[in-house]
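Long-time lurker, first post. I've been practising inverse folding by hand and with some scripts of my own, and I keep getting stuck on stretches where the structure tokens seem ambiguous. Below is the full token string for one chain I'm working on. Before anyone asks, I'm not after the true native sequence, just a reasonable design that respects the backbone. If someone could post their per-position residues I'd love to compare against what I wrote down in my notebook.
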């Protein structure tokens, strides 16, 4: 299984190693399952950066 480099910005433990990145984050190599977990839990997002806007759903018409 190939490893993927991913930059993390939040405290995270991977393979029994605790990472506590500073404001510039830290790059680690993880398998694709771990990378998916990191993305799903926003560990890879820099604090203070707004998330992409959720798609707006048009309100139902009440004519």
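-- Answer (accepted) --
I ran through it position by position. Result:
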């Amino acid at each position: 299984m190939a490893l993927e480099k991913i930059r993390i910005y939040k405290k995270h433990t991977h393979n029994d190693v605790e990472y506590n990145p500073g404001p510039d984050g830290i790059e680690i190599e993880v398998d694709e399952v771990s990378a998916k977990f990191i993305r799903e839990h926003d560990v890879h997002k820099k604090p203070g950066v707004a998330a992409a806007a959720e798609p707006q759903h048009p309100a139902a018409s009440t004519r």
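A couple of notes from the structure itself: The first strand starts at residue 4 and ends at 8. Residues 32-40 form the longest helix (9 residues). Happy to go over any region you disagree with.
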